[in-house]
Amino acid sequence: MTAPTPSTASADSQIILGEWPSMWSLRTFSGQSTVFMTTRFALLVILCIQAASFDSTLLLALAVAALGVDLAHMGLQGFIQVRGAALQQWVKRLVVGDLDFFVHMEGKDEICMYGRVLEALRQSLIRSRDLELAQKELSEELRQSNDTLKSTLDRLRTTQDQIISQQKLAELGELSAGVAHEIRNPLQFIKNFAESSRLFVKDLAQLLARPEDLGSKDAQEEIAELAGDLSDNMERISNHCERANRIVSDMLDLRRDGSQKFSPVDINKLLVEQAMLAYQAARAQESGFNMSIKRDLDAGIGEISAVPRNLSRVFINIVTNAFHAMAEKSRTDDDFEPTLWLKTRRTDEAVEVRIRDNGTGMTPEVMTRVFNPFFTTKDPNKGTGLGMSLSHDVIREHGGTITPESVEGEYTEMILQIPVSDEPRGGSESP
Q1: Could you read off the pLDDT of 101-141 as tens digits, one per residue?
Q2: Residue 278 CB contacts under 8 Å (≥ 6 apart), including other chains
Q3: Residue 207: pLDDT band with limits 50, 70, 90
Q4: CA-based diameter of the chain, in Å?
Q5: 325 close to 388: Cβ distance less than 8 angstroms
Q6: Torsion-angle region of residue 425: left (phi > 0), alpha (psi -120 to 50) or beta?
Q7: What is the pTM of this model?
Q8: Collapsed DSSP state (helix, strand, coil) of residue 10
Q9: 20 to 30 A Cα–Cα from 293, which one of 68, 72, 89, 395?
Q10: CA separation for the pair 194, 196 (Å, rounded)
Q11: What are residue 36's phi and psi, to 5 degrees?
Q12: DSSP assignment of 368-387, as one string?
């Protein structure tokens, strides 16, 4: 009888052990041993019969004793064969991957030793199987976690884009009141000069209505004076219209979204204009608030390569924060004189911009977190905590640095280092 061919398969290969012969086959040592034992037993039986025929008690006793010893040996050999068959079945089941099957053996003989080896192998295979299953489960969990993290990251990016858009709208909202106040002044001047010009035209019309008086010296002088006043009014109206147009243009530049190219920028002019714009917005928010602005600008800076819209946001954010710090300090100190310092210097490699206020200052803890997204010391309804974080990103995208210096209760100074480049750089993906 031939046992089935045991084999085991994995994802990459298949182990084939070939035909597994029966333990009773003549091709096995155990099968050959069975033939020898059977032949020996037959010969001993014949010997006993022959000994009985010689009527020799001693010879018969020796023959019967030899037969008994042989029978005992055959019984022991059969017991060994049965246990060997159990081990063979165990090995077959291990080969095909049946790790739940095992044979319990007790004793200290070599069969039990082989059984203990097979049991150790089975336990090792069980641990390997459990580890493989755990690895597969862990891989699946990691895959699901990665998918979840990817989905979460996509949502965070979408949310970040929305928050940045809201921050831009918040910046425009803070400036809108100041812009309205700033535009109201030139419009009021235009209205006053237009009304004055209307009166001058009325007086001039009255003079022209009396042709008989036009030849007099007084009439000529009055006409010349009225014409000069009209000319001055027209020039003032033109200047104030240009001022209003410039304010609107600045706001439109801040309002535009999308990336912009690096272009030559007059850093001194941009700093002053945006600081004044932020100041006017601050005055609209804090009625009666005034501050002095001191300038120390390096006229030799010239133009640098930058993104005007993004630098404008940086200057506005810093000046706005300075305003809030000084306004807070002015509420508790009647003798406090709010002052803002604007300073620029050019070195061989960079332009340094310093914006300093004498407001409440920052604690060391606040200084370490001032550029963290969503960190703010303002009331929740007054700030998103993104202004300085975006400013830091803008300066970094320009290849520069922004460093805070502050003493609590005395001052805060933001130091911007912007590299100087002779050649305009490429497009920016600034926020």
Answers
A1: 888 877 787 888 888 888 888 888 889 888 999 999 999 99
A2: 175, 178, 315, 316, 319, 320, 323
A3: confident
A4: 192
A5: no
A6: beta
A7: 0.47
A8: coil
A9: 395
A10: 5
A11: -65, -40
A12: HHTTSTT--SS-GGG--S-H
